[in-house]
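QA checklist item 7 of 12: single-chain prediction sanity check.
[x] sequence parsed
[x] length recorded as 153
[x] structure emitted
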Amino acid sequence: MRSELTMAERIQICRHHEGGRITNKALSLWASEKMGKPISEMTISRILIRKIELLGSDVGSNRKHYRKPECPNLESILYSWFLTMQEANVTISDAMLIAKAKMLSNSVPRESAKEFKFSNGWLQGFKSRHGISSKQASVSLEFLHQGTRLRHW
């Protein structure tokens, strides 16, 4: 029977591996016992190949997959702006996030040549990657421009 590991379980395996020299077989036995499901040496090997990426990620613990953002620079700047607005007690709607992302996309160098679409799917992925709740608010779009002036984006 095949069962998929959550990101938290994969990270736990990586951290246990950091504890000292341990073979994949021993790590497989430890993880199988700890997590209550069979985990093969091949699975351990695949997890350890992505160890740096897994330990450096801030993904939710119940997630089973992690997809890197297409525009990490843009997302980083957008998230910084979001935090600045949050500190100013401004609730940001989905429409405001998309509008700000479009504004920022003109000034941030693109990682790829293809045109980027700020779809609802992208928005949900962005919010999920950064732990932003789905609350909506009716706040004026003037805050988009105020945030731009605050941080000089």
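[x] summary fact logged: Residues 7-56 form one domain.
[ ] second reviewer sign-off
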